[in-house]
């Protein structure tokens, strides 16, 4: 399945949700959507960063990309200290920050998540630890599970020079420790703007826990977060407040 069709458009979301409800069809969807178990599906504990940010702000933002933003958003929404995690696009221009356009893989955008967090509760280094161990497979550059293309790339968009320094140091630390069987492919792209995605993409994992793509690709990530980092896990997700459309 090519990247442009591996996830449904808005008009297909409710239609497919109605079709894939039975357990048998979910297993069929596993054959269609699935791949061999990835690092993010299996999960693995990672050492804490030896370099981290000093706590100098009451609230801070970080932006991460690692495949479909549904799962990445869902993971960070369950991290204690995260105030908000918004699905969106980063790496390209404002006029191209639209789901259908980003899906072409030609905009420079990656599906991303902007995390607003309290650094006194959870540090940027801790978020990186969760990002690399639970949220996605950092050894794959332009592929995560069934999704392929630059719009699904593994990328950190630092919002400060200090974040870029910490991220670079942690990648070097993990590569030196050989915690993965392959080198980390994650890139660091500073100075890129973030644009929030359409409302129907926000809180998707929480609102659609039985949706086959979520069941197969993303719910294991939440379980891994709870299992590997129980002290960082919170059961009640920090949901995005989405305005209802007016008619």
TrEMBL record:
<keyword id="KW-0560">Oxidoreductase</keyword>
<dbReference type="InterPro" id="IPR002569">
    <property type="entry name" value="Met_Sox_Rdtase_MsrA_dom"/>
</dbReference>
<keyword id="KW-0812">Transmembrane</keyword>
<dbReference type="InterPro" id="IPR036509">
    <property type="entry name" value="Met_Sox_Rdtase_MsrA_sf"/>
</dbReference>
<dbReference type="Pfam" id="PF01625">
    <property type="entry name" value="PMSR"/>
</dbReference>
<comment type="similarity">
    <text>Belongs to the MsrA Met sulfoxide reductase family.</text>
</comment>
<keyword id="KW-1133">Transmembrane helix</keyword>
<feature type="active site">
    <location>
        <position position="68"/>
    </location>
</feature>
<comment type="function">
    <text>Has an important function as a repair enzyme for proteins that have been inactivated by oxidation. Catalyzes the reversible oxidation-reduction of methionine sulfoxide in proteins to methionine.</text>
</comment>
<feature type="domain" description="Peptide methionine sulphoxide reductase MsrA">
    <location>
        <begin position="61"/>
        <end position="211"/>
    </location>
</feature>
<dbReference type="GO" id="GO:0033744">
    <property type="term" value="F:L-methionine:thioredoxin-disulfide S-oxidoreductase activity"/>
</dbReference>
<keyword id="KW-0472">Membrane</keyword>
<protein>
    <recommendedName>
        <fullName>Peptide methionine sulfoxide reductase MsrA</fullName>
        <ecNumber>1.8.4.11</ecNumber>
    </recommendedName>
</protein>
<dbReference type="GO" id="GO:0008113">
    <property type="term" value="F:peptide-methionine (S)-S-oxide reductase activity"/>
</dbReference>
<feature type="transmembrane region" description="Helical">
    <location>
        <begin position="15"/>
        <end position="35"/>
    </location>
</feature>
């Amino acid at each position: 399945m090519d990247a442009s069709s591996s996830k449904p458009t808005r008009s297909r979301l409710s239609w497919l949700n109605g079709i894939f409800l039975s357990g048998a069809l979910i297993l069929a969807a596993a054959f269609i959507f699935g791949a061999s178990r990835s690092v993010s599906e299996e999960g693995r504990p990672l050492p804490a960063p030896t370099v981290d940010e000093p706590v100098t702000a009451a609230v801070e933002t970080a932006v991460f990309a690692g495949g479909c933003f549904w799962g990445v958003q869902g993971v960070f929404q369950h991290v204690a200290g995260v105030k908000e995690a918004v699905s969106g696009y980063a790496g390209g221009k404002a006029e191209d920050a639209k789901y259908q356009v980003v899906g072409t893989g030609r905009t420079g955008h990656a599906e991303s998540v902007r995390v607003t967090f309290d650094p006194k509760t959870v540090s940027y280094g801790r978020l990186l630890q969760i990002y690399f161990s639970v949220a996605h497979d950092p050894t794959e550059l332009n592929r995560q599970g069934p999704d392929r293309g630059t719009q699904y790339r593994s990328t950190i968009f630092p919002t400060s020079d200090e974040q870029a320094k910490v991220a670079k140091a942690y990648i070097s630390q993990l590569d030196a420790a050989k915690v993965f069987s392959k080198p980390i492919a994650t890139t660091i792209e500073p100075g890129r703007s973030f644009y929030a995605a359409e409302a129907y993409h926000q809180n998707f994992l929480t609102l659609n826990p039985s949706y086959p793509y979520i069941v197969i690709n993303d719910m294991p990530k939440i379980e891994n977060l709870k299992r590997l980092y129980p002290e960082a896990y919170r059961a009640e997700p920090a949901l995005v407040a989405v305005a209802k459309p007016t008619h």
